């Protein structure tokens, strides 16, 4: 997958007023994280999921500093406002259905020619 193409496609998707919900599972790393995994309108993750661009050692060597324990976990990212919700896999279907139902209700009540975001 090419990062630039997925990023451009997501920009077009957003410009069209469409909802983009991501579900980050274990592990979500590398180019996926850098390109489209963190660009959603709503970002969900599974408990304990490893989410990051590079491994902790590589990042520590790059920034020349010690990083907090668990800084690449779903829980840490949620606590720091980078995720909207942590959802158990067994609850994903119901959670996604609720999000889509709410979004469809909002789209139906939006002024003509626009969407509410």
UniProtKB/TrEMBL annotation:
The gene is accD_16. GO terms for cellular component: acetyl-CoA carboxylase complex. The lineage of its organism: unclassified sequences, metagenomes, ecological metagenomes. Residues 1-117 form the CoA carboxyltransferase N-terminal domain. The keyword Flavoprotein does not apply. Gene3D superfamilies: 2-enoyl-CoA Hydratase, Chain A, domain 1. GO terms for biological process: fatty acid biosynthetic process; malonyl-CoA biosynthetic process. This is Acetyl-coenzyme A carboxylase carboxyl transferase subunit beta. GO terms for molecular function: acetyl-CoA carboxylase activity; transferase activity. InterPro entries: Acetyl_CoA_COase_Trfase_b_su (IPR000438), ClpP/crotonase-like_dom_sf (IPR029045), COA_CT_N (IPR011762). Its EC number is 6.4.1.2. Keywords: Ligase, Transferase. It comes from bioreactor metagenome. It is an enzyme of class 6 (ligase).
């Amino acid at each position: 997958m090419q990062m630039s193409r997925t990023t451009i496609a997501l920009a077009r998707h957003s410009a069209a007023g469409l909802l983009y919900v991501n579900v980050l599972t274990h592990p979500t790393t590398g180019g996926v994280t850098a390109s489209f995994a963190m660009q959603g309108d709503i970002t969900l993750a599974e408990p304990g999921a490893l989410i990051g661009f590079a491994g902790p050692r590589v990042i520590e060597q790059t920034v020349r500093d010690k990083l907090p324990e668990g800084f690449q976990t779903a829980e840490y990212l949620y606590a720091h406002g980078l995720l909207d919700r942590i959802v158990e896999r067994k609850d994903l279907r119901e959670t996604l259905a609720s999000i889509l139902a709410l979004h469809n209700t909002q789209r139906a009540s939006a002024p003509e020619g626009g969407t509410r975001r």
